[in-house]
Amino acid sequence: MIGITVPPPVRRYIPGMATLNKQARSRWLQGPSAPCETVPKGAHLPWRIVLLGAPGVGKGTQADLLNQRLHACHLSTGDVFRAAGNRSDCELSPVMKEAVAYMRRGELVPDTTVWDMVRERSECLHCAGGFILDGFPRTLAQAVSLKQLMDTEGLGLTAVVNYELPASEIVARLGGRRTCETCKAVYHVTDRPPRVADCCDRCEGKLFQREDDRPESIKVRLEAYDRSTAPLIEFYGKLGLLMRVPATGTPDEICDKTVPELEYRRTKQFANLLWAAEENRRDT
Ligand code: AP5
């Protein structure tokens, strides 16, 4: 008898609880020469989720929460570029230096650079615990490349979650965001302030404002989203993978709305796989 293991839910969001465990995603953050020290326990059908939504809608916050509840690895392309931005210039390749400059201006990094970086880390797509892709794909070309790679390697997506929020609320979320420089936990100066100003609740690291959260970069990022990323909603809608989730309410409330639908989709995907295997067996 084959069963799906669903871990018990964790009820309260604690910023950075998942991101603190950085050694669990060191292969993603630092590249294939830094294998992960801890790998999540495998499930019969790992979660393979893509998060979509405008900058600041709360993808990183939700990825952290989904990681706590589902134990799938949080793979953020923005985190990889920010980690590169923290290194000294002489440690970076010319291509990575250029990528960091695009990020600081709020522009999208060119597709070839992003794809080379993801392909180099493609082992992470096979992670036994599954993955939550945050910030990738972000253009149609990236989505097509990801689909081709996953089809070739026999991997299927569980779902693509699109978080939706009015633009005015998005700007307020970005303007008030503060991030811990040590564990990368995300706060908001009014909505989710730390207990002590500018100090992370979990690791006491210093909180900082991201360079691309300045008003001039926010405008560029929102325009890039409308132009390049919004068309992915139709792309994944046509593939039957899209889940629309209003990003209003507390982070826990949003996650509570998301998880049951994800579970339903994974159960359906599992049943389809069993059905296909049975048909195959009968045909041979
Ligand atoms: P990336 O890091 O992916 O940034 P982004 O998509 O712009 O998203 P953000 O991290 O800004 O926001 P979020 O949706 O994660 O919101 P968060 O949870 O932090 O990319 C950065 C850059 O890297 C790009 O601009 C680009 O240059 C480059 N890049 C990365 N990937 C690329 C790719 N594939 N192709 C090309 N270029 C790429 O929340 C925001 C704030 O809201 C926080 O303060 C949080 O506390 C608060 N908040 C969250 N949820 C709630 C809630 N429910 N209620 C109230 N406040 C909330």
- What structural class do the secondary elements suggest? alpha/beta
Mean pLDDT: 88
The fraction of residues assigned to DSSP E strands is: 5-15%
Q: How many β-strand runs?
A: 8
Helical fraction: 40-55%
Question: Regions with pLDDT < 50 over 5+ consecutive residues?
Answer: 6-11
Distance between the termini: 22 Å
Radius of gyration: 19 Å
Please provide the ordered H/E string of secondary-structure elements. HEHEHHHEHEHEEEHHEH
Principal-axes geometry comes out as globular
Give the biggest sheet. 5 strands, parallel
Bound molecules: BIS(adenosine)-5'-pentaphosphate
Strands of the largest sheet, in order across it? Answer: 2-3-1-4-8
Number of alpha- plus pi-helical segments: 10
What do these coordinates show?
This protein has 284 residues and is α/β, with parallel strands linked by helices. Helix content is 44%, strand content 12%. It contains ten helices and eight strands. It has helices spanning 26-30, 59-70, 77-85, 94-105, 111-120, 140-152, 167-175, 215-229, 231-238, 251-283; strands spanning 47-52, 73-76, 130-134, 159-164, 177-180, 186-188, 207-208, 242-246. The strands form two sheets. It has a five-stranded parallel β-sheet, sandwiched between helices. A three-stranded antiparallel β-sheet has the order 6-5-7. The longest helix has 33 residues, at 251-283. Residues 6-11 have low confidence and may be disordered. It binds BIS(adenosine)-5'-pentaphosphate. The site of BIS(adenosine)-5'-pentaphosphate has 36 residues, from helix 2, helix 3, helix 4, strand 6 and helix 10.
